[in-house]
Amino acid sequence: MFSLLSELFIRKMTMERTADHISESTSFDMAGLMLNRLPLCLGVTAGFCLILAYAWQQVFSTWHMIAWSAYAVSVFIIGWWLIRRLSESLNVVGMTIKLVEDINNLTVVLAIATGLIWILASGLQFYHHGSDQWLYLSILIGAAASSGMLFSYNIKAALIKVGMVLLPCTIQVYLADQNASAYFVAFTLIYLATLYLVLIQFHGLLEKNVSLRIEAEQAAKKQSEVSYLFEQHWLNAPLAAIQWGRDNCVIDWNPSAESLFGYLRSEALGKHADYFVAESSRDQSKQMWSALFQRKKEGDHSVHEVKHKDGDILISEWHNTPLLKDGRLIGVASFVEDITSQVKAKDTIQRQATYDNLTSLPNRRRMMDELERAISRSHRTKQYAAVLFLDLDHFKDINDTQGHHVGDLVLQFFAHTLRKAVRNQDVVARFGGDEFVVLIEDLGKKEANARTKALAIADKIMEMGKEVGKHEGLEYEVELSGGIVIFNNDRYSSHDILKQADLAMYRVKDGGRKGFSFYDESMTVEAEYRVKLIHELRLGVENKEFDLHYQPILDPSGKMIFAESLLRWRRPSQRIVPAGEFIDFMATLPMMNEVGLWVFETVCENIVNWREKGLWTDDMSIFVNISPRQFHNDKFSEDVKKIIEKHGVNPHQLVFEITEESVIHDLDKVRGQLMELIDYGIRVALDDFGTGYSSLAMLQKLPVQFVKLDREFISNLDTDGESHSIVEAVIKLCEILSLKVIAEGVETEKQYHVLKEMGCDYFQGYYFHKPMAALEFTKLINPESEDNSLKLVVSETLTD
Given this model, what pLDDT does residue 62 score? Predict the structure, then answer.
């Protein structure tokens, strides 16, 4: 409704603007015609004055004639001069609204000025009672009629002039002889009224004729413009424009059609529409023409293939309009566009939206669609289907050590291998990075058989992944971790199934990688627990729930030389949680960097506090555990230095404990940061020695000063001969390499004495001291002190 009112309003405004324009043009033309007529008005008036002067030459005295003639001549001269000025302005600037006003004003002035000539003449005639009054009246009647007609382009001037010519003499005749002139007066008034009516009608006709002429000129001009625009549009239209006859043959053919089809206009005229249509689109073209010529549609849109003159097949879009005359179809106008490139681009975009560019496999979006369809089919047929979620183990190492171009080759090689390992009807997709998903359907209606088939395909993938690819002298073997989910209903959505497969895959990774695992419900429970634990750990950081405990490290004489800082979590409504129950999980999270720096800064601040109280000597040090994730931070060593400089701690009083896991995947990067810290003064200890990947090699490659024996060897020291031999060999090896050995987990006196006899340098364990809070540790290093209010930094800076 609003749009209709808007359209009507716009039409009304357009009509009003058009009417205003015509009215203005009419007033311009009337003023121009009047200006051209004014010299004639003065000339006719001058002619009548000459006739009157001739009739008066024997009647009036000389000075009367001279005065009257002088006024008449002055009117003619001034009038001619004013008319010439306006004519010159018209020639220079053209007709304007101001010029129209000036012309109309001049016309009225001249009508009044020339009218005064006749008023004065009437006064002279009747004042002197001149003879030949009827001759004079005849002259006035003729002057009145001619003046009215000459001034008819300006009705106001015409009426004024006629009135000034006739009324004065009529009044004087009546006053001179009321009885004798009554009939003459009545006649004159009737004549004057009739002349007024005739002049008004005549002026209206003149104005209407001018208006009609202007409308006709504007219509002709508009038609000419429309014809010109149509011709230009036809010739310069970006689309091929074709006019067809009733017989489907070309009547007209624009330059764009020449460009699109390759045929000149002279070559195309008269040819049938089928001549330009590709064989594959003949039926579609016939349907289009049939619909048009049967007038089932006002217009028709079609997309089909056409032939270029050189034989190329183009995809074209047709917009057809029936041409009607008196309700009868006489032809068709078509606008044709070559959309070959758009169609190909659209196909490319659609493929890019659903396929992976690197491997040419379907991508996540396409797999999600396929999985939705598979769920529906499985529910309908009760046939089991399976989803395999695959991840390449240690793929990041390939990118980091051999370059991303080699990593891309590995992905392409594996995609090709994976495609060969499954059936043609199975869907293989790359989800991104090094993750792939395989969808297998029609595994039967028995779950056991479906599991067996899915596992057989998984084993085949594992075996084919062992094939070695070679590129420019490099070799690589693909190892996989994968999760499997089987289903035969629509209980779970596509997102749920992929999530389950992902959980099963991570179960394999947590168990050491390289293999497959079927999903079970416990994995979801475990995942939910992990999410809950992450949330609680984050709250713990925000609420400052973490503390540091310290466990002394003694020399063989029982003197405390070092202490290890150990993270504890004051979990709400629970006991204090030791680091072993959460630190491995926390180490996988980004928050480990924040917590690690807090631990280090807290240690530094406590050392400063103990030193200021005289409780900390220069030969005492604190061991600080460093997570593998912290070494992934390029600014780790820089952040450590800033904290040390901030608190003024001697770097030699700090020992970083690292595990072999921290360095095994990126030895060069970690070794570089460690060397930078060692040069700064910090010492390094290798923790859990003997449980990692290649401990003896690590001792040579890493710049460590201490080796901590894993508690697993210490606990079996007095019962397991093999553990006894290993510990003894390690101690001797470290002695050769000038490394200090620290035994962790010493819990019995016998273990202590055996280690001491072997030459172990330092001892740590429950036999000596349990880990203790900072306040208890303070009492330990100063047993005689009764000041329990020593200021210690425990968790104040955790979230700063």
Answer: 65
